[in-house]
Amino acid sequence: MAPYKSPGEDGILPALVHHGMQYAVTPICKLYRASLATGYIPLSWRIARVSFIPKPGKLDYTNSKAFRPISLTSFLLKGLEKLVDRYLRSETLVDFPLHPPTARLSGG
Length: 108
Hints:
Blueprint lengths: L13 H6 L1 H18 L10 E6 L12 E6 L2 H21 L13
Antiparallel strand pairs: 1-2
């Protein structure tokens, strides 16, 4: 993640964790392990600030479809999501795919 991306409501920038990694890695690992073991996501991680960005080229901005929502969520939640996603894609879904592989047609 980019170091100075807009923080979520918790105010934690990725750069803060990166620069203090030697102090932060152990507590963050404990938080992540506890969250996964209990199935509980801390309340402060669940808060999102949503900004609506106007889509370019729209003639009428009174319609909600003329905007793109951007959710600013906790950097710590994003980190946990990335770890779970990486695990599922590299381990679980490799061994237990959601659907059987289909034969590819050779182009030609």
